[in-house]
Write the structure tokens for this entry.
Amino acid sequence: MNVAVCVKQIPDPAAPPALDPGTKNLVRDGKLILDDSDAYGVEMALQLAEAAGGGEVTLVSMAPNGETSGLRTALAMGAAKAILVSDPALAGCDALGTAKVLAAALKRAEPDLILAATESSDGYTGTTPVQVAELMGLPSVTFAKKVSTEGGTVKVERQTEAGYDEVVSPLPAVVTVTAGVVEPRYPSFKGIMAAKSKPVETLTVADLGLDAASVGSAGARQEITNVAEAEARAAGEIVVDEGEGHLKVIEFLEQLKVI
Amino acid sequence: MHFAFTEQQLEFQSALRSVLENECTPDHLRAAFADPSADAGRWTTLDEMGVVSLTVPEENGGLGLGLVDLVLLLEEAGRAALPEPLVETTAMAAPVLAALAGRHDRCQRALEALVGGGLKMAVSQSADPLVPVAGALGADAVLMTVVRDGIREIHLVPTNGDGPEVARPEPVSTLDPTRLVGRFTSDPTGSATSIATGDEAERLWGDLEQRAFVATGAFLLGLAERMITITVDYAKDRKQFGQPIGSFQAVKHLLAGAQVKLEFARPCVYAAAWMIDQGDPSAARNASTAKAYASEAATEAARVCLQAHGAIGYTWECDLQLYLKRSWALAEAWGSADDHRQLVLDSLVDEFG
């Protein structure tokens, strides 16, 4: 079974993030790393391909400047190859534009199953995977906490507020996985060495047969109009307890009408 | 000539750092202090990654890499104060086992266990078999040397399983229980444990000691860096006279001085690793230089970090103590800074005197 995983390469969350003052977009010119939340999808894909008795895991990603550092991390975990779409025309892409690009790239991989994280750690829209499914005309199942495949179907335990739903879908399908789905493996040194020679196909918007006006900032229907500091949490009131502290607590709780 | 680490060496370092940031936190170290014999699964993870067998030749199933490849990883291990015996197993013992594997079944089997099963090794520093050995309690086997009638011997002493050659060390209590120091109550070496003698033993043990100096030095660099990082954070946070203590010059200078010592020690350790890999004739002297500088850097870092913390730095609740105790132990292990300065002097006098 061939599994494709949508992975995002993001600026290192440990480094202080920067916003472009003009576009108000996140600056992503430097070295990018594999989004932690995508490691779960990669691990799940590797396990599913193995359980199905073979098949390849293909990574699909869109990133500026032909960036492959994050892809190499996922290749080191065991993915076989990667498709990277990188094109200056893609700068300023909104979620739907990204979905168009990923859908076009995914078609080339002809996967039996497409996995993605529920959302990226830098954009947080959480909309791209379902848009990809819609554009490809595939069913989508979100928030998977357990995934297995059998014959031509995928069985998913879908996380809900109260517990989980059991969902069965025909393949191919798009499934988004939560951080709890599996424990990602650490890349081995042999895997890191092997990742260097694994194929990464780099494509442009034209290679995918997409109209440049429909993607990037040209095609974006979303615009960041304003960026503001999150309101700082107000300082609490400090009460010095001189034996009467409990009365203050009672008074406070009475104000809240909880007692 | 390329005088920097390769991209791959840096990738290995970053991969190991991610693992240890998850698997070897201060909480994990506290758990190891409380129960040093408990298996936290870290060694298996390192084994599966290929860290443990990094220096084993490729034909024996390892990665066939050298001390330059290993030195950054040992620094990471030091940053995390890794309790498991990476220095002893991968830097010191594996090359000896690999050198003798073709001729000794026991070395061959030990090497296979090291590659496939994460065999843990300890190495005795003394030629007196009754002197306590760090790591002996947690190890599967201890590599030992003795000198009988002026002739050096190397012995591989298993510490578990059955057989006449198996010897079980007794626990020795120490300040850092993760060191798992053990002592043999009677000489465990004999014809059944011998793996090399004479000139070959001299050469193998001499090379092992050089690797020990550099590897222990690399581990000390990591410890020093971690202690300084912890203390810089503390100095920004801890207030006295209404301001963070890090704003006082007396504290700033202490910590900056420790960082300078660390930065001066680092290239000495890297250079010595490179010379050992190259078989450079002055490798031994440079290995001693590396250990002297690294020991001094870690001792200084430990001293100023404890001073900047105040007495709380030594308490169980403070993370600093987890790294302090290992620094003190390793600064003296395989020769103190003074011992190594003397060796450097002797070597220079021999060559140029």
